[in-house]
Amino acid sequence: MAKFLTLNTHSWLEANSLKKLFDVAEHIYNENYDVICLQEVNQEMRSLPAKEVDGYVEIPGTPTIHRDNFALQLVTYLKSQGRHYYWSWAYNHIGYDKYQEGVAILSKAPLKSQEILISDVDDETDFHTRHVLAAQTEVEGKNLTVVSLHMSWFGKGFEAEWQKLETALTNLPKPLVLMGDFNNPTDLEGYEIISKSPLGLQDSHKVAEYVSGDHTIIEDIDGWEGNKQSLKVDHVFTSPDLPVKSSKVVFDGGDAPIVSDHFGLAVELDF
Q: d(Cα 96, Cα 46) in Å, to the nearest integer?
């Protein structure tokens, strides 16, 4: 059984962020995930460069990893507990005038990673800039392409971003596992575009033998100002030949504490 996790971490923007980082790490350690996709992985622009970045797979042109990089801190702590992950980070843009923000993938097996520009702009000072991180790795003896993404909202860039991503994914090795913050709620317009893609993707929460939880954000959060309902905007989409055993919302205050303004999603694939 292969175990996957996706979480929009909100990183250092969270209150008590260091404690929440340890909460995330402890959950990863206890569940022993094979692959983890993270979004809003931040580091301060003015913090010091890291001296050691064990297991890091660098994408050319990416900013230097700093000591406070959220993914680095997570991987370092897990290593201290005997869990080693290879990891990569794709840079998107400057957030809140002080952070370099991106998306990350952690994997027990070595990674071959690349970034895919899906926005019309490529300017770190423009928050519309979005890069997707794609990595080939091996899980339970099976080769696959994992994608960590943080997309725009429907009507605000998503349609063009998805078209670019879909084209790029057509040329990458299959099967695919797409995980992240799609910013498009289940069964609404943007979600339907993904569902009807020629990639033939399946939503883990629609096809799993066991499903738990039905939303990943609650009402009014960053990017969803004025929202008054609970929505599931974080998804795991896979190629149709990957059997999904379970798909459950985590970090919702149940088995794992709330660590972000998003809940996470844990999926088991039955290889």
A: 13
**Number of domains the chain is built from:** 1
Q: List per-block mean pLDDT (blocks of 10 residues) for the chain, which spans 271 residues.
A: 97 90 97 98 97 95 97 97 98 95 98 98 96 98 97 97 98 98 97 98 98 90 72 97 98 95 97 85
pLDDT computed for residue 23 by the predictor: 97
| Cα–Cα distance, 4 to 40 (Å, whole number) | 18
Looking up tokens 């702009």, which residue turns up? 121
Question: Is there a contact between 178 and 201 (Cβ–Cβ < 8 Å)?
Answer: yes
User: Per residue in 231-252, is it b (16+ CB within 10 Å) or e — as a string?
Assistant: bbbbbbbbbeebebbbbbbbbb
| CA gap 194, 180 in Å, rounded | 13
Phi/psi at 26 (5° precision): -65, -40
Q: Are 81 and 122 in contact (CB under 8 A)?
A: no
CATH number at residue 168: 3.60.10.10
**Predicted pLDDT at 198:** 97
The whole domain housing 136 covers 2-269
**pTM score, two decimals?**
0.97
| Rounded distance between C-alpha atoms, residue 95 and residue 75, angstroms | 22
pLDDT at 271: 85
Reference 160, options 209, 215, 116, 119; nearest CA is: 119
Joined tokens for residue 106? 């952690």
Q: What pLDDT score was predicted for residue 13?
A: 83
The span from the CA of 11 to the CA of 18, in Å, is 9
Residue 7's pLDDT is what?
98
Contacts of 97 (CB under 8 A, 6+ apart): none
